[in-house]
Amino acid sequence: MAGTPEFAPRALQTLSGLRFSTATSAFQIEGARTLDGRGRSIWDEFVDEPGNVIDSSTADPGPDSYHRSAEDAALLAGLGVDRYRFSISWVRIIADGMAGTKPNTAGLDYYDRVVDELLGVGVTPEPTLYHWDLPTALEAAGGWLNRDTVHRFGDYVDAVADRLGDRVRHWYTINEPASTSLQGYALGELAPGHTMLFDALPTVHHQLLAHGTATTILREHGAEQVAPAINHSLILPETDAEADHEAAATLDLIYNRLFADPLLLGEYPDLEALGAQMPIRDGDMELISTPCDVYGFNYYNPTTVRGVGEGPLPFEMVPTPGAATTGFGPLWPIRPDTLRDFLIDMRTRYGSKLPPIVISENGASFPEPEVGTEPIRDDERIAYLHEHLEAVAEAIVAGVAIVGYTVWSLLDNFEWADGYTQRFGLVHVDMNTGHRTPKSSYQWYRDLIASVRA
Question: Active site located where (predicted)?
Fold first, then answer.
């Protein structure tokens, strides 16, 4: 396409070693919230509470992938991706999530079809087992604050692996536990909508335990690649003031090290300053730090903070000076250099403990029309992806082992508390009809994949 950014030959050669993919999640694309024995999750409760979602949408029908999975497989085949990261809905498999509840055959049958459709077009399925859809009954019993949820997650993972493990060899366990703990339990911005602040920290431990538990189960079913998908952000101080640097160090501890350290080093960072203590039992840290085959790394933007002397938190998130922003506004700056720098810092910080990295999500939302029958020229998204892939190439040249790159998202979807007001897709979706129209970024990504394979 005229005007499309191109990679320098060296960058293109560096990227040629990557496996390319794109991603979605069940609640965001499937619809069919009340069909075929599906139970209720914390997100069903959240969207049904007036005022929680900015446009009052409910994720149903949305892209309606429950009925259009074959179309999505065809779109993936057209892209030429190696793999597809999608998620499995816990409540489609174990409707209430409780011990003793039999797996739902209709739900398993659906994902059986999805896997076969992907394999039929030459795309490797990479399911994520937890992408925020905790069963409501488990939340009523304490949710991720309750250690028993780890065991119930194991029951669900075992049921899924028993049905799909003969064909699925690549798995993600837990998606973005920082968002669940910090936005879901600490600040109330996402489901389940609690405002517990630092009292929410046990949810970190239990999610990481769930990852370790799932890893063991999946390997017993023949898995070849198991990974978490951890969201990270390079934390920047607003100024050189000591208070801002202290604020940045605190948020880095909470948002980044609190998750990466136990996974990779088998220990939590020092939490004494937060007045927090994890509910650790014998054997927990060994299970959490079970070596991963790859490290799933979700990255969108850096976070700039200012130190504050009062309030429940010692920092305040502020706009990043001089940075352009995505459709989410001033707290979603576009700084691809921070992706490179964070990746290099990960290698420096964790050394040989860091397995090869897969960029398991990277993408951007920009304002786009609700209805589109002609391909949308989403040049801003193309520029964002191009610049972040250049940052990935620079990190590889600097010695970081990176083996995969995943665009969020294949489709425009339900963007959680922002409903349908934010569009991340390579493919435009009319949420009234489900009609799919590839955007210019879809063609750009397809051409990139073809170029690195040439």
Answer: 176 (proton donor), 361 (nucleophile)
Closest listed residue to residue 121, CA positions, set 91, 182, 63, 76: 76
SS3 323: coil
The structure's pTM equals 0.97
- Give the pLDDT score at 1: 44
Helix (H) or strand (E) holding 392: helix 379-397
Q: For the chain, list residues with pLDDT below 70.
A: 1-4
Domain membership of residue 1 (yes or no) is no
Mark the binding-site residues, compressed into ranges: 28, 131, 175, 300, 408, 415-416
Domain that holds residue 145: 9-453
Residue set of the binding site for substrate: 28, 131, 175, 300, 408, 415-416
Would you give the distance in Å from CA 293 to the centre of its chain?
Answer: 18
CATH number of the domain enclosing 290: 3.20.20.80
Residues 6+ apart with CB under 8 A from 409: 22, 23, 24, 28, 363, 424, 425, 426
Residue 433 domain flag: yes
Please confirm whether the linkage preceding 61 is cis (ω < 30° from 0). yes
Instruction: List residues bridging with 100 in a β-sheet.
Output: none
Look at the chain and count its residues: 454
Tell me the H-state helices in 3-64.
9-15, 26-29, 42-48
Give the CA count within 13 Å in the CB-facing half-sphere of 225. Answer: 23
